[in-house]
Design a protein that fits this description.
713 residues; alpha/beta; Arc Repressor Mutant, subunit A; Tex N-terminal region-like; Nucleotidyltransferase, domain 5; 5 domains; 5-stranded mixed beta sheet; 5-stranded mixed β-barrel; 48% helix; globular
Amino acid sequence: MKEIYIKFIARKLEVKEWQVENCTELFAEGNTIPFISRYRKERTGGLDDAQVAEIKHWTDVFDDMEKRKATVIETIEAQGKLTDELKARIDNCVEASELEDLYLPYRPKRRTRAAIAKEAGLEPLADKMYEVALSDPRKEAEKYVGEKVKSAEEALAFARDIIAERVSETAAFREALRHIYRTRRIVSKATKAAQTDPEGMKFRTYFDYAEPLSRIASHRLLAMLRGQNAGFLTLKIDADPEKCGNKLYYDFCQARKYPSEALGKQIRAAIDDAYERLLSPSITNEILKEFKEKADIESVSVFGENLRQLLLAPPVGQKRTMAIDPGFRNGCKICCLDESGNLLCHEIIYPHPPQNEKVKSIMAVERMLEAYGIQAIAIGNGTASRETEDFIRRIELPEGCKVYMVSEDGASIYSASQAARDEFPDEDVTTRGAVSIGRRLMDPLAELVKIDPKSLGVGQYQYDVDQNLLREKLDNTVVICVNSVGVNLNTASTYLLSYVSGIGPALAGNIVDYRTEIGGFSSREQLRKVPRLGAKAFEQCAGFLRIHGAENPLDNSAVHPECYHIVDKMAKDLGVETKDLVGNKDLLSKIKADAYVEGDFGLPTIQDILKELSKPGRDPREAAQEFSFSDDIHTIEDLKEGMELPGIVTNITNFGAFVDIGIHENGLVHVSQMGVRGRDVDPSKILKLHQHIKVHVIGVDLERKRISLRLIK
């Protein structure tokens, strides 16, 4: 990678240039983000997975920019206009806007007013005026009157068209305007359609609204842009045309010399035309795009953080689980799962209106609890969830059996997906959905990887942001989460395995097929026998795969096989077997990390090995916690201002957090109600997804079904 790109990335991410350079080399060698951040700390200086992912993002951006530069240079060269100076300026670009500014004068374009003027032979006159090489433009213009030009005034008008286009295509002028526009306000007004269309009322906050671009929150900008795209809002930036024209005219004269009064009027007229007709619309679009990109990055970051928290939600682990997809008229679908998440039975009960078969439902639940040794109960948090929870808690549960509320977001998407059909070809969508709810409780990560993250309801304006950026962020988040937890090689689904470093869908399928063939893996080395799983893939994935009960206990740890010899040496030096070191803190405390540094394995790697040996295969996730809503609240009509209620955070945005308080509607804790002062408060730094919290009810809007809450510290 070019040095200019490395310097840019290092400066932007506030890391060392050598760290960026080494990361780009590791990417070029075919290494993945999780592998680099976990097993190549010596070369990265200990960068975490988020930093490595950012470097990967910018590496891809600049790879694309290099391709764009090649196209630009080729196009200009074909016109015979590529100079050494221009080529050097293009080569040294790191900003896309700068590159496009340089290309603009040479970019093929449709027939413009300037092109028509050139066809009429007025370019020489425009050249002299543009270079301030004459003082009497009208006298010079008279020389061009003829068959194509009827008068001196028409000749001057043609020349102004050429000058206007040149001004609009001058990089320095465009950047000067960008600087002005960035400091101005975005102004939003309602269109006629907004006044008559009920859908338009969703944007009434922005019917007459203005805010400085430098301060606007990402969710407000995205909302305005959505309103504009829907035809309900018009947006503009309130830059002063006269001041912008003065700035352009001043810069024009400073680069040359001040023209005569007569020529000055012609130049100023051309500049004003360039601003109104060409520059203002173009720069407005550019600046809105620039600020939208910033808003996209913020929103995508929120989405990624929410997804990370969701995927790393506490699991209850391998427990026999009863999963309930609640409902009223259509009943509650119940599925019982064994410790591995396999379906044992399913049936429907009708404990709620209109059927009200409470006794029959109680008997059915008690029968299943006893027959299948149920240890945990998962209830979907959708329609009838509170009523179903109340019903279940009235039943005498087995000792130690706890009840958990589980998010249903995306369960219907999964139940109709190919993944669900592959797993349960003979079951209907309701059974598949209930199974998904139960498995989410047992291991959220393993189940949620089967669902498109955009269907999980944990973000803001997800369909308005750059979809490529969103997909990149979400894919990276899933990969990082899967690999940070580790995957059981003998029980993981194809979908979960496909996210393991270096594997992907095709190899995941091969691993599952080979696992079935041999009856399960007994060592990591057996992975080398999987069809099409080569040395590089083994290197990338081995450290993230776990084999419970393996002969070599290191195969059930995050210690990479490339470092097994180091652990063997540690054991030998202590006069014990390797297996004796695993989990033995007394023995591990006797090991001096410095003594085992060798070759590419520096102190960070040795310290990671010792940390892993002390708690091999440790799951970084917390344990799941039971939760109960208030017994007095069942509908929004039950709410009163001043009530103190328990709740669960269901979504986090830049403007606040949505909280489930046990009724159909979620409440909102606005960022201003989180007990932290400051304009730039980040809700994700205060609350976490699925966190159990206490809130005060501070407002209830029955008509709009909106609930305002305040966080209780």
